[in-house]
Design goal:
Elements: E1 13-14, H1 21-25, H2 28-37, E2 40-43, E3 48-51, H3 54-60, E4 66-67, H4 76-79, H5 89-95, H6 106-115, H7 120-123, H8 127-141, E5 146-148, H9 149-154, H10 156-166, H11 173-183, H12 193-219, H13 225-231, E6 233-234, E7 237-238, H14 241-273, H15 277-280, H16 284-297, E8 304-308, E9 312-313, E10 319-320, E11 325-328, H17 330-333, H18 368-385, E12 390-391, E13 396-397, E14 406-408, E15 410-412
Parallel strand pairs: 1-2, 3-11
Antiparallel strand pairs: 2-3, 4-8, 5-15, 6-7, 8-11, 9-10, 12-15, 13-14
C-alpha cells in the first residue's frame, strides 16, 4: 500500500516543470524518457500519479471508478480541501454545470439535450459554410505573401462556426476567443492570484453576455442551439439559466480552443515534415487520415485529470485514496512506442493510426465530428490555395502546458 510519496520507488517518480520553456516547447523529450522507464509514474511537480501509456489512458478515460468531479460523492471537509476562493466565484459559476466536469445523471441529462446538434449527420451540412469561410479568409491575406496564421485563419474558422451554431453574432466571435483565452489560464501550473482574478473577470463578462442573449431569445426565438437549450425538455424538465450559461460557455470555448491549437500544430508539422502535400490531401479519405495523424502527432490537449471516486487498488501497484487526482497524458499516449510504430514520426499513411486526443468514454468530446470536418476542410484548402507555404519564423508554443498550441505561427509563400 502506497501511503505517501516517500514510499514511491525512485524509478516511478519524475520531475519536469510545466512552466519551463524547454519543457513546454517540446514535452515529447520528457515523454520519451517516461515511456522508456515507467509510463505509470508519480509527477513530483503536480503531486499526483500520471499515466502515459496508450492502453492505460484509453482504459482510464472509460473507467467509472474515476470522475471529472468528486464533490458529488464527498464534501470538501471530508477531502480536506479548503473553501473555494471568493475571487474566482464567477469562474466557478461558469464551470458549475459544465458537461466537461459533470458526472451522471446530471451529465447524461445535459448531454442528451445538446448532443443532436453535434452528431455527424448534422455537422456534415456545415461543410459548404466552412469551405466558404476558409476561402474568404485566405482571400483576405493571400496577396500579402505572409501572415500570422493563428489569428488570421486558425482561430476565426472554429470561433465563427460555433458562434453561428449557438446563435452568437459573428462579429462577437473573436471577443469570445479573447474571453476563452483568459479563462483557460486557470489551468496553468502554479497559477497566480493576478491570473485568477483576470480569468474571473473574463468569466463574469462572458456570463453577462450569455445572459443577455438568453433574455433576447426568450422574446425572439430563432433557429439556433441557444433557443433549443431554452425550449428543450426532457421528462418534463427544462434547463435552468445557470445550466444554459455553463453549457453555452463550454461549447463556445471547447468549440474553438482545441481546433485552433490543432490547426496551428498541424500546419507546423506538415511544413516541417517536408511531406508531399498533394499526396496527403489527395482524396477525402486520405485527408481524413492526415487529420487523424495530426491529432495523434501533436495533440491539442496534453493532460486530462480525473478523481478517484473511492479508494482504489490498481493492477499496476498504485493505491489511491478517495478524492486523489490522477493525470491522463493524452499527448504522451499518442506517442506510445508500445502502441505505434515509429511513434515520433509524422506519417499520414500509417496503418496503425488512432489517438485519444478527443478523450473517450462519457466525456468523449461532443464536438469531435465538427472539429474533424473543420480541420479537414481548413487544412486542405490552405495547402491547396498556398502550395508554397513555409515557416517565416520559429514557431513558439503557449505557456499553458495542458493546452498545447502555438502562440504565433508566422508563415509566408
Amino acid at each position: 500500500m502506497i501511503s505517501s510519496t516517500d514510499a514511491i520507488a525512485p524509478a516511478r517518480r519524475a520531475s519536469a516543470n510545466p512552466r519551463d520553456p524547454v519543457f513546454y516547447q517540446n514535452p515529447y523529450a520528457f515523454y520519451d524518457g517516461i515511456h522508456a522507464t515507467s509510463p505509470t509514474f508519480f509527477w513530483d511537480n503536480y503531486g499526483h500519479w500520471c499515466f502515459a501509456g496508450f492502453k492505460e489512458v484509453n482504459q482510464l478515460l472509460r473507467d467509472k471508478r474515476f470522475g471529472r468531479e468528486i464533490l458529488h460523492v464527498a464534501p470538501r471537509e471530508e477531502l480536506g480541501w479548503p473553501e473555494r476562493k471568493p475571487h474566482v466565484a464567477d469562474f466557478d459559476l461558469a464551470e458549475k454545470y459544465s458537461l466537461l466536469n459533470l458526472e451522471p445523471p446530471a451529465h447524461t441529462r445535459l448531454r442528451t439535450l445538446v448532443n443532436r446538434a453535434f452528431v455527424s449527420r448534422q455537422v456534415e451540412q456545415l461543410r459548404p459554410r466552412i469551405a466558404a469561410l476558409a476561402n474568404e479568409l485566405i482571400d483576405g491575406f493571400e496577396k500579402d505573401g505572409q501572415v500570422e496564421l493563428i489569428h488570421a485563419y486558425a482561430a476565426p474558422i472554429p470561433a465563427i462556426i460555433i458562434s453561428e451554431m449557438i446563435g452568437v453574432p459573428t462579429d462577437m466571435a473573436m471577443q469570445l476567443v479573447a474571453w476563452s483565452n483568459r479563462m483557460v489560464t486557470m489551468y496553468m501550473f502554479g497559477v497566480t492570484e493576478e491570473t485568477e482574478r483576470d480569468a474571473n473577470q473574463a468569466s463574469a463578462d462572458f456570463i453577462a453576455y450569455i445572459r443577455t442573449l438568453i433574455a433576447e431569445r426568450r422574446v425572439r426565438p430563432t433557429e439556433d442551439l441557444l433557443t433549443h437549450m431554452i425550449t428543450a425538455e426532457q421528462d418534463g424538465q427544462k434547463l435552468t439559466d445557470d445550466e444554459i450559461v455553463s453549457t453555452a460557455i463550454l461549447l463556445l470555448n471547447a468549440g474553438h480552443e482545441a481546433t485552433v491549437h490543432t490547426t496551428g500544430n498541424s500546419v507546423k508539422t506538415i511544413i516541417e515534415s517536408g511531406i508531399d502535400r498533394k499526396a496527403i490531401f489527395s482524396s477525402d479519405e486520405q485527408t481524413a487520415a492526415t487529420v487523424e495523424e495530426c491529432l495523434r502527432f501533436d495533440a491539442p490537449l496534453h493532460m486530462f485529470t480525473r478523481y478517484a471516486l473511492s479508494d482504489i487498488e490498481m493492477e499496476n501497484g498504485v493505491s489511491l485514496k478517495k478524492g486523489q487526482e490522477i493525470g491522463l497524458m493524452l499527448g504522451a499516449a499518442n506517442r506510445d512506442p508500445a502502441r505505434f510504430s515509429n511513434a515520433n514520426t509524422f506519417d499520414p499513411f500509417r496503418t496503425d493510426g488512432q489517438n485519444v486526443s478527443f478523450g473517450a468514454g462519457i466525456h468523449f468530446c461532443i464536438g469531435a465530428p465538427l472539429a474533424r470536418i473543420e480541420l479537414q476542410i481548413s487544412l486542405k484548402t490552405l495547402f491547396e490555395r498556398l502550395p508554397g507555404l513555409r515557416l517565416a519564423e520559429e514557431p513558439r508554443y503557449n505557456n499553458v502546458y495542458h493546452f498545447h498550441g502555438l502562440e504565433r505561427l508566422q508563415v509566408a509563400w
